[in-house]
Amino acid sequence: MAEFRECLERCGLADLGFVGQRFTWCNGRHGDQRTKLRLDRMVTNDEWLKMYPEASVQHCSISISDHC
Length: 68
Fold this sequence. Notes:
Layout: H1 2-10, E1 14-15, E2 19-20, E3 25-26, E4 36-37, E5 43-44, H2 46-51, E6 58-59
Parallel strand pairs: 2-6
Antiparallel strand pairs: 1-5, 3-4
């Protein structure tokens, strides 16, 4: 993960962040066996963000999928 973050930095990209649920994936198990992760991300550079300053990422709730 550190190498991925370094690559984003070298390319001038940053995570846009999100609004909504913290995790975008769950393995569907319960208790100690449950795993939740934020797999889905949107990255952007400063130039794009200046063109779309209102842009945001919204995590919707899980319905029938293991992804939100």
